[in-house]
Amino acid sequence: MISWMSFMGMASCRRRGQAGRRTRSRHLLSIIAAGATLVVTPLVLVIEAAPPAAASPTCLTAGSTGLTATVLATTGQTISHQVIDASGCDIGIYVGTGVTGVTISGNTITHANDHAILAEDTSGITIKDNTVTDNGLNPTPGIFDDKAVELVGTSNSTITDNTITDHWADGGIGVFDNGPMDSGAPRPGPSTPVPATADTISGNKLSSNFHGCGIVVSAHNPGGGITNITVNANTVIGAPGVSGPHGPVIGGIVINAPRAHTALSDVTVSNNTITGAYIAGIALYAAGSGSTISSVRLTGNTMSGNDWGETSGRVRPTAIAVAAYPTPPVKYMVPPTVTDTVITNNTITDEFYGVWLAYATNTISSPNNITTTPGGTAVYNAPQPGGGYWLAASDGGVFSFGDAKFYGSMGGKHLNAPVVAIAQTVDQGGYWLAASDGGVFSFGDASFYGSMGGKHLNAPVVAIVPTPYYVKPPGPYPNPGAKGYWEVASDGGIFSFGDAKFYGSMGGKPLSAPIVAMATTPDGHGYWEVAADGGIFSFGDAKFYGSMGGKPLAAPMVAIATTPSGLGYWLVGADGGVFCFGDAQYFGFYGSMGGRPLKAPIITMATTPDGKGYWLVAADGGIFSFGDARFYGSMGGKPLAAPVVAGSAVTAIPSP
């Protein structure tokens, strides 16, 4: 005899996949519920005749979106207290252009390929008290934002008191403008941009929504824009470490203008509870050329344990991130702006950074109740790129100039071997020191990912290079996320830690001269090694653009610096001579100390963010600036307990 529990186990053991979450038990149970009689005999399962199950929904054309919908709303219609199974259709309920005054309340909406609810170019829409679950099962290619509930170019509308869970495609709730980019459909939007204004998102509960953010308010279209939006009293719950078929549970609230010449203003994000997000609890940023965000208020929110993915150039968990930066940095682009942001009365716990600011202006960030994790900072301001530099001495002493902040050092502490290198984190909030025995010391927001300290080395370590933060489509290897570093030894051996990948080395191969330096490509999928005789060795996607190997040198090479494109590099010798290869010849030769008297040899160089200048650093702490590199001070002429051995400049622009 087969028990009822045995039957349930048999019926549910074959699944279409987590994204579909449709089991045979569901279909069997629907038949049983319809009045069938279940007869169980040994080894035989018989389901006697029953009334036919409900037919699959008819999928209707959803306007000109290129999608289909189970229900097409009409003007003034109330759609309430229905179970809408959108199996096989792209949208559960579609509210099309000019269809106004629709109320969608008390429904259960499931199994849509994409959106449970999509409204476009309309007004007066009320979406309340619905249960939206198990949608986004088969996402349509080409939809930029495939949220469970999405308003596009919609005004004077509300999304309130809904429960939104298990959306597999792209997160929970979205409000967007419309135009050439229709974020909710796989085709271009209307030729005339349609703004989103006076919309409210309140009292919703969101959890277990994968791949996309919990709530997004975003301007995508020049001439469209976002104004007068309220995001109030929502609960957005993440799930640290949990992923679905399309990505992790992300959570969080995002307010942004990510594209060129887009605008967002007058947004209030208040009294929300945000926990366990993959991203910052609240992320506010402008990233497109000329994009603007103004007058955003972040007040009374409660946040804890967010940014577990440590994303977007922030290398430690952050509750609120506010930034204006180009993505990626583009030469001659109009800088984006974020201005007049008010951050008050928020309660923040279990974060390294309470508020993380990068290039935003007129920001008020107090009073807030912020409790950080050990070593954290309540409010952090990223320094301006090119605005300063650090020097490191062989005894572990660190000297900071300009906007570069001092986060600690090994000066005066016992060292098993001298310090030989320094490297800063991508958001400039910390740095690593590396010793010749491979030991690594972390300061500020720099995390320790391992080292060669205490391990056998065939040759001493000479440099440490951090992985970049890279967000473009991945190649054959995963993209790095600024969570690792390489150490390189004088015999050419490469040691990888964190998200740094090994692409080969000169370790164990014959060298005409020892390796003295290393540099990585912009995507972190390759690197160069440099020998004292000027030889260059390329690995991964690093290309060879020429070298000084085999050529007469007045002094040995000591360092390499790459161009912003990664298609070229500069080399510098101990006498201060500078040599250009690849597109470094285009970016330019801005001068050198070659042939000039030096009190101490040059030991390294660093470039400015735009590649239009560089600094040379001498062993006595002297700094020499060329091109658009500014002089912020030096240790030249000052007493030093040990010689300077390395320098690192504030050069990075964090990415969103």
Which structural class is indicated by helix and strand composition? mainly beta
What's the CATH topology name of the largest domain?
Methylamine Dehydrogenase, Chain H
User: What is the CATH level 1 assignment of the largest domain?
Assistant: Mainly Beta
Gyration radius over CA: 29 Å
Count helical runs. 3
**Helix amount, in percent?**
under 10%
CATH architectural arrangement of the largest domain: 7 Propeller
Summary of the model, kept short:
This protein is mainly β and 656 residues long. It is 4% helix and 40% strand. The strands form ten sheets. The chain has a 20-stranded mixed beta sheet that branches. Strands 5, 8, 11, 14, 17, 18, 21, 26, 29 and 32 form a ten-stranded parallel beta sheet that branches.
Record the SSE blueprint.
Elements: H1 4-12, H2 24-33, E1 38-41, E2 44-47, E3 60-61, E4 68-72, E5 78-80, E6 83-85, E7 91-95, E8 103-105, E9 108-110, E10 117-120, E11 126-128, E12 131-135, E13 149-152, E14 158-160, E15 163-167, E16 173-176, E17 196-197, E18 200-202, E19 205-207, E20 213-218, E21 226-232, E22 235-237, E23 243-244, E24 247-248, E25 251-257, E26 263-270, E27 273-275, E28 282-286, E29 292-299, E30 302-304, E31 318-324, E32 337-344, E33 347-358, E34 369-381, E35 388-393, E36 398-402, E37 419-424, E38 430-435, E39 440-444, E40 461-466, E41 484-489, E42 494-498, E43 515-520, E44 526-531, E45 536-540, E46 557-562, E47 568-573, E48 578-582, H3 584-587, E49 602-607, E50 613-618, E51 623-627, E52 644-649
